[in-house]
Every structure is written in structure tokens, then in C-alpha cells.
Specification:
By secondary structure, this protein is mainly α. Helices cover about 40% and strands about 5% of the residues. It is built from four helices and two strands; from the N terminus they run ααββαα. A two-stranded antiparallel sheet has the order 1-2. It is rod-shaped, with a radius of gyration of 32 Å.
Length: about 130
């Protein structure tokens, strides 16, 4: 606590059991009020009133929020998915390549089961 009864952000973060960056996020979102002291524009000094900290703690306990909102306990599934038909075709190609490798033959994508050939058929002569 400073001479004027204000708390430094580091002290408040330690009291709340959160990191300094999380406290700064609460300050940016104006969830906790601060006092800016000094005339510095680039890096103003921030101080917090004990009453504002107590009010913030009360609001957070009413919301049921934990000490840190940025910890996610459940894994978020990836957004990209592969259709089963594409996935099945890929597995067939990989299996064919593995079998050819075991037997010592070289294969291309066109020789794998389910793969389509890009080569055009020779046209019959129309003479």
C-alpha cells in the first residue's frame, strides 16, 4: 500500500491470486476501476483503491468466476474436418503404397485402388 492508501497492480494481482497480465485485462475491460497518477502519457502509473478491489472480488464471486478466466479445462475440437469418403480413399491409397513397398514395386497414385487415371484414352482413327 502506498502513502495515500492506494494499492499497486502487482499487490492486487498477488492478493487476487492472478497474474499481472490478467489484472491488466480486467482493467482494460473496465471491470475494475483504477486511478491514474502522474502526467505520463506513454506509461501512466496505475493504482487501485482497496474499495474497488473489494467490489471487484464481490462481483466475481457472484458471477462464480474462478481466479483466472483464461484457463480452459476442456479441449476445443479442431474446426476443420475431413469427409469420410475422402478419408477412406486416402487410406486405400496409403495401404496400396505400403503393400507395394513391402513387395518391392513402385506405384503411382493412379495405380492405387479407387484412384482415377488422368491419362486420356487414345482416340480411334476416323479414317
Amino acid at each position: 500500500m502506498t502513502k495515500d492508501g492506494l494499492l499497486k497492480p502487482k499487490q492486487v494481482a498477488a492478493h487476487l491470486g492472478i497474474c499481472l497480465e490478467t489484472l491488466r485485462g480486467h482493467i482494460r475491460r473496465r471491470e475494475i476501476s483504477v486511478v491514474r497518477i502522474g502526467a505520463g502519457l506513454k506509461r501512466p502509473r496505475l493504482r487501485l483503491r482497496p474499495a474497488a478491489v473489494a467490489e471487484f472480488e464481490l462481483r466475481q464471486s457472484e458471477l462464480g468466476a474462478g481466479p483466472c478466466q483464461f484457463i480452459v479445462e476442456e479441449r476445443i475440437p479442431p474446426t476443420a474436418s475431413t469427409s469420410s469418403s475422402v478419408e477412406g480413399g486416402l487410406r486405400e491409397i496409403q495401404a496400396a503404397r505400403a503393400a507395394a513397398k513391402r513387395s518391392g514395386q513402385k506405384t503411382s497414385c493412379a495405380s492405387a485402388p479407387g484412384a482415377t487415371s488422368k491419362q486420356s484414352e487414345p482416340e480411334p482413327s476416323s479414317r
